[in-house]
Structures are given as C-alpha cells and as structure tokens.
Amino acid sequence: MIQITSIQFREPKNNHNPELIKLCDVVLDDCLKLKDIQVCKNNIGYYIKFPNKVSKDNQYRYDIYHPINNGFRKYMESEIIEKMIN
C-alpha cells in the first residue's frame, strides 16, 4: 500500500470558510506531492477536503485529484488529522 512519507501544514490565506483550519501538502512514498489538501472542522469533528476547480460558468466543481477508494481516503484523513493534533 502507498504510504504517507511527509505532511506539511500551513495557515490558509484569505480564509472565507469558517470550517477551514489548515492547508497541508502530503508526500506519498517519497515520489508524489499532493498540495493544498484542506483540513476542516465542524460540529462533528475534523475532516479533509481535496482541491477542486470551479467551472468558468460557476455551475460545476471539478476534482483536481482525490482518492479512488474509501480505505485510502480514511488512511490519509487519520494520518493528517493525527499529525495536526499532535
């Protein structure tokens, strides 16, 4: 399985989303860097959001990248949140 080898956090700039706490970059297997993953918090708890792009007509959001299975998404979310809290 792919492993997270590095997580780096930074403060969001011009934050208009009250749930957004941090942005992070994740490196997988020292080979691939995923930038601008959002770490958010609501009344249920912490969660992550992957980057997306809004269409020119503002009708659609397109994922830039995202996990294709729920197991890997949960792995990423737990590793990111654990590192941010500790």
Q: How are the SSEs placed, and which strands pair?
A:
Blueprint: E1 4-10, E2 20-28, E3 32-41, E4 46-49, E5 52-54, E6 61-63, H1 70-85
Antiparallel strand pairs: 1-2, 2-3, 3-4, 5-6
Question: Summed up, what is this model?
Answer:
Keywords: DNA-binding. With 86 residues, the protein is of the alpha+beta class. It is 19% helix and 42% strand.
Structure, explained:
By secondary structure, this protein is an alpha+beta fold. The protein has a single domain (4-85), classed as Arylsulfatase, C-terminal domain, CATH 3.30.1120. Helix content is 19%, strand content 42%. The protein has one helix and six strands. The strands form two sheets. It has a four-stranded antiparallel beta sheet, covered by helices on one side. A two-stranded antiparallel sheet has the order 5-6. The longest helix has 16 residues, at 70-85. It is globular. The two termini are 24 Å apart. It comes from Sporolituus thermophilus DSM 23256. GO terms for molecular function: DNA binding. Keywords: DNA-binding. This is DNA-binding protein SpoVG, cell septation regulator. It holds the Pfam family SpoVG.
